[in-house]
Amino acid sequence: MGWRIVHVSKIDQMSLQLDNLRLQRNDQDIKIPLRDIFALVIEDLTCKLTSRLMIELSKNNVLVLLCNQHYLPECIVQPVSGHASHYRQMMKQLEWSKELKQIAWQQVVMRKIENQSLVMRKNMIENIQCEKIESLINKVEVGDLSNQEGQAARLYFNSFFDNEFTRQDSDYIENAALNYGYAILNSAIARTIVAKGLISGLGIHHKGERNLNNLASDLIEPFRQIVDYFVIKNPPNEYLTKEYRVDLINLLHAKVRIENKMQTVIRVIELTIDSLLRFFETGNPDKLQFPDVSKIVLYEP
To answer: How many helices (H) and strands (E) does the chain have?
Structure first.
């Protein structure tokens, strides 16, 4: 699996040269092996792309994100198939039972709330608030029918922002930063889901008819707190500068715990999806593994 994340903001043309991504601008001519690339984030609206390059990026399972004029990912390019046993994996996924899906969602929500409480404690939120959100973890039912996730979210964000704050309020530039970070994470998860031969549109909880990545929308929940931690520790002073966007993209290189080991977020995504497959094979919730943000090591270029 590739590891590099290539961020393109001022490039005249991208093309394929042998097995390399070639980037050209004026006298600059840079080549990067395709096998080293995990994701390509393109923000230059005037950059020229060759179709041959796009085909080879797809063959190499490179995540390609095309961003709009507000720098937010607008289009994701994914391979049509990315797994040697795509049909068999797809058929298994179609047979996942409703009961097991609800158990999986319960575990996702429990880890999400636990990670939220860890971020709160890392930011010295008063103990009574931390205890309130922690008390919700054991109240999460199979399928989270009582929506403990929503109750936790209100407690969580109100601990860091004023009571008027909502995730939909564009007046808070923190929301732009959170949205950007979440979009990068969601795309990376969707890319890995497809690479594993799964149907990204078929979720365990989310059922959006227009959402091509329902399963990614499920699995991102315990990952969001990595973005939250960064944005809360490093609040933006203005709207998504290039340097800030690069820092958010580089959260994919940050390290968190999973299976009692520190791994990059890129690797944690893969391990999480692998654990989900083991869970549906065995029906054992202990097989599920999610990121643990009790320790976060940010990437330093």
So the answer is: 10, 11
Task: Tell me the CA end-to-end span of the chain in Å, nearest whole number.
Answer: 20
Q: Name the residue type at position 183.
A: A
Q: Is 64 helix (H, G, I), strand (E, B) or coil?
A: strand
Residue 24 CA to residue 15 CA, distance in Å, equals 8
Q: Say which residue the tokens 């966007």 belong to.
A: 245
Whether residues 102 and 151 share a domain: the answer is: yes
Rounded to two decimals, what is the model's pTM? 0.91
Buried b (16+ CB within 10 A) or exposed e, 67-96: beeebbbeebbbbeebbeebeebbeebeee
For the chain, residues with pLDDT lower than 50 are none
Compute the distance between CA of residue 254 and CA of residue 275 in angstroms, rounded to an integer: 20
The reply to whether 124 and 66 lie within a common domain is no
- 204 close to 193: Cβ distance less than 8 angstroms: no
Q: Based on the structure, what is the number of domains in the chain?
A: 2
User: Residue 219's pLDDT is what?
Assistant: 98
- Picking from 51, 77, 103, the residue at the C-terminal end of a domain is 77
What is the domain extent for residue 54?
4-77
Q: What is the pLDDT of residues 60-81, one digit of tens each?
A: 889 899 999 888 888 888 766 5
Q: Are residues 149 and 51 in the same domain?
A: no
CATH of the domain at 72: 3.100.10.20
**Do 40 and 125 belong together in one domain?**
no
Output the six-digit token pair for 280.
């549906």
What confidence score (pLDDT) does residue 1 get? 65
The secondary structure of residue 141, as a DSSP letter, is P
CB contact at 8 A, 86 and 268: no
Rounded to whole angstroms, the Cα distance separating 197 from 79 reads: 11
